[in-house]
Amino acid sequence: MITPTLFWWYVVPYLMLNKGLSVEETGLFYTTGMLTSSIINFLVGKFLDKGSPNILMAIISLIEFFSYILYFIAFASDQHILILVAIAIEYLSRGFYPAYPAYEYEVYPEELRSKAFIYHYILPYLTQAVTYPLIGYLLSFYRENLELSILAIAIFSLFYAYIPISWLPKSREESRAS
User: Fold this and answer.
1) What is the pTM (predicted TM-score) of this model?
2) Cα separation values, 150 from 75, 85, 168, Å
3) What is the pLDDT of residue 70?
4) Nearest CA-CA partner of 74 in 156, 12, 24
Protein backbone atom coordinates (compact mmCIF):
# COMPACT_ATOMS: atom_id res chain seq x y z
CA MET A 1 0.00 0.00 0.00
CA ILE A 2 2.80 2.45 0.72
CA THR A 3 4.78 1.64 -2.41
CA PRO A 4 3.64 4.77 -4.30
CA THR A 5 5.25 6.94 -1.60
CA LEU A 6 8.59 5.27 -2.33
CA PHE A 7 8.62 7.25 -5.58
CA TRP A 8 10.06 10.07 -3.48
CA TRP A 9 13.26 8.09 -3.02
CA TYR A 10 13.94 9.18 -6.61
CA VAL A 11 12.46 12.68 -6.46
CA VAL A 12 14.39 13.87 -3.38
CA PRO A 13 17.88 13.39 -4.92
CA TYR A 14 16.60 15.07 -8.08
CA LEU A 15 15.42 18.06 -6.03
CA MET A 16 18.72 18.14 -4.15
CA LEU A 17 20.65 18.41 -7.40
CA ASN A 18 18.22 21.05 -8.70
CA LYS A 19 18.72 23.10 -5.53
CA GLY A 20 22.45 23.32 -6.19
CA LEU A 21 23.88 20.46 -4.18
CA SER A 22 26.64 18.54 -5.90
CA VAL A 23 26.56 14.78 -6.43
CA GLU A 24 29.31 14.53 -3.80
CA GLU A 25 27.29 16.47 -1.23
CA THR A 26 24.16 14.45 -2.01
CA GLY A 27 26.12 11.20 -1.55
CA LEU A 28 27.58 12.44 1.73
CA PHE A 29 24.10 13.30 3.00
CA TYR A 30 22.82 9.83 2.12
CA THR A 31 25.85 8.10 3.66
CA THR A 32 25.25 9.94 6.92
CA GLY A 33 21.60 8.91 6.82
CA MET A 34 22.48 5.25 6.23
CA LEU A 35 24.84 5.21 9.19
CA THR A 36 22.02 6.49 11.37
CA SER A 37 19.77 3.73 10.08
CA SER A 38 22.22 0.92 10.80
CA ILE A 39 22.49 1.93 14.45
CA ILE A 40 18.70 1.91 14.74
CA ASN A 41 18.45 -1.62 13.25
CA PHE A 42 20.16 -3.04 16.31
CA LEU A 43 17.76 -1.31 18.70
CA VAL A 44 14.72 -2.32 16.65
CA GLY A 45 15.77 -5.97 16.84
CA LYS A 46 15.82 -5.72 20.62
CA PHE A 47 12.32 -4.19 20.61
CA LEU A 48 10.96 -6.89 18.29
CA ASP A 49 12.02 -9.52 20.80
CA LYS A 50 9.40 -8.15 23.19
CA GLY A 51 7.17 -5.63 21.37
CA SER A 52 4.52 -5.57 18.70
CA PRO A 53 5.51 -5.04 15.05
CA ASN A 54 2.22 -3.15 14.54
CA ILE A 55 3.52 -0.32 16.68
CA LEU A 56 6.82 -0.19 14.81
CA MET A 57 5.05 -0.11 11.43
CA ALA A 58 3.04 2.90 12.61
CA ILE A 59 6.21 4.55 13.92
CA ILE A 60 7.81 4.12 10.47
CA SER A 61 5.05 6.18 8.87
CA LEU A 62 5.21 8.84 11.58
CA ILE A 63 8.97 9.20 11.18
CA GLU A 64 8.56 9.41 7.41
CA PHE A 65 5.86 12.07 7.88
CA PHE A 66 8.31 14.14 9.90
CA SER A 67 11.10 13.67 7.33
CA TYR A 68 8.81 14.67 4.44
CA ILE A 69 7.73 17.79 6.33
CA LEU A 70 11.41 18.65 6.79
CA TYR A 71 12.07 18.00 3.09
CA PHE A 72 9.22 20.34 2.23
CA ILE A 73 10.55 23.10 4.50
CA ALA A 74 14.13 22.54 3.31
CA PHE A 75 13.32 22.69 -0.39
CA ALA A 76 10.85 25.56 -0.02
CA SER A 77 13.32 27.68 1.98
CA ASP A 78 16.56 26.45 0.36
CA GLN A 79 17.99 25.23 3.69
CA HIS A 80 20.57 22.55 2.82
CA ILE A 81 21.20 21.57 6.43
CA LEU A 82 17.52 20.67 6.81
CA ILE A 83 17.89 18.32 3.83
CA LEU A 84 20.62 16.46 5.74
CA VAL A 85 18.42 16.28 8.84
CA ALA A 86 15.47 15.05 6.75
CA ILE A 87 17.60 12.33 5.12
CA ALA A 88 18.93 11.19 8.50
CA ILE A 89 15.37 11.03 9.86
CA GLU A 90 14.11 9.21 6.76
CA TYR A 91 16.87 6.62 7.06
CA LEU A 92 16.04 6.31 10.74
CA SER A 93 12.65 4.99 9.63
CA ARG A 94 14.36 2.42 7.40
CA GLY A 95 16.04 1.08 10.50
CA PHE A 96 12.58 -0.02 11.61
CA TYR A 97 11.89 -2.01 8.41
CA PRO A 98 12.59 -5.41 10.05
CA ALA A 99 9.15 -4.92 11.61
CA TYR A 100 7.51 -5.85 8.29
CA PRO A 101 8.86 -9.42 7.96
CA ALA A 102 8.47 -9.92 11.73
CA TYR A 103 4.81 -8.91 11.40
CA GLU A 104 4.28 -11.27 8.47
CA TYR A 105 5.90 -14.09 10.42
CA GLU A 106 3.62 -13.46 13.37
CA VAL A 107 0.24 -13.05 11.65
CA TYR A 108 0.41 -15.63 8.87
CA PRO A 109 -0.02 -19.31 9.71
CA GLU A 110 2.97 -21.43 8.77
CA GLU A 111 1.25 -22.98 5.74
CA LEU A 112 0.56 -19.51 4.24
CA ARG A 113 3.89 -17.88 5.10
CA SER A 114 5.72 -18.79 1.90
CA LYS A 115 2.87 -17.35 -0.21
CA ALA A 116 2.75 -14.22 1.96
CA PHE A 117 6.48 -13.64 1.53
CA ILE A 118 6.18 -14.10 -2.24
CA TYR A 119 3.34 -11.56 -2.37
CA HIS A 120 5.35 -9.22 -0.16
CA TYR A 121 8.10 -9.15 -2.78
CA ILE A 122 5.96 -9.24 -5.95
CA LEU A 123 3.15 -6.80 -5.12
CA PRO A 124 5.38 -3.76 -4.53
CA TYR A 125 6.90 -4.20 -8.00
CA LEU A 126 3.47 -4.52 -9.57
CA THR A 127 2.29 -1.46 -7.67
CA GLN A 128 5.35 0.47 -8.87
CA ALA A 129 4.67 -0.58 -12.46
CA VAL A 130 1.19 0.92 -12.21
CA THR A 131 1.69 3.94 -9.95
CA TYR A 132 5.14 5.27 -10.91
CA PRO A 133 4.19 6.15 -14.50
CA LEU A 134 0.98 7.73 -13.18
CA ILE A 135 2.84 9.74 -10.55
CA GLY A 136 5.47 10.77 -13.10
CA TYR A 137 2.75 11.90 -15.50
CA LEU A 138 1.00 13.95 -12.80
CA LEU A 139 4.25 15.51 -11.63
CA SER A 140 5.14 16.53 -15.18
CA PHE A 141 2.34 19.09 -14.89
CA TYR A 142 3.57 20.34 -11.51
CA ARG A 143 7.34 20.48 -12.05
CA GLU A 144 7.58 23.91 -10.45
CA ASN A 145 5.70 22.75 -7.34
CA LEU A 146 7.39 19.45 -6.51
CA GLU A 147 7.86 20.71 -2.96
CA LEU A 148 4.07 20.80 -2.50
CA SER A 149 3.92 17.21 -3.71
CA ILE A 150 6.24 16.26 -0.85
CA LEU A 151 3.78 17.90 1.55
CA ALA A 152 1.00 15.71 0.09
CA ILE A 153 3.14 12.60 0.59
CA ALA A 154 3.71 13.65 4.20
CA ILE A 155 -0.04 13.71 4.76
CA PHE A 156 -0.38 10.25 3.18
CA SER A 157 2.28 9.02 5.61
CA LEU A 158 0.07 10.06 8.50
CA PHE A 159 -2.75 7.98 7.02
CA TYR A 160 -0.40 5.02 6.67
CA ALA A 161 0.49 5.28 10.37
CA TYR A 162 -3.16 4.62 11.19
CA ILE A 163 -3.38 1.37 9.18
CA PRO A 164 -1.21 -1.01 11.28
CA ILE A 165 -2.75 0.18 14.52
CA SER A 166 -6.40 0.09 13.53
CA TRP A 167 -6.90 -1.99 10.40
CA LEU A 168 -4.25 -4.73 10.23
CA PRO A 169 -4.62 -7.79 12.46
CA LYS A 170 -2.64 -7.45 15.65
CA SER A 171 0.43 -9.60 16.06
CA ARG A 172 1.24 -11.39 19.26
CA GLU A 173 2.66 -9.13 21.91
CA GLU A 174 5.84 -11.13 22.04
CA SER A 175 7.59 -11.62 18.73
CA ARG A 176 9.76 -14.61 17.87
CA ALA A 177 11.94 -12.56 15.51
CA SER A 178 15.47 -11.88 16.67
Assistant:
1) 0.76
2) 10, 16, 26
3) 93
4) 12
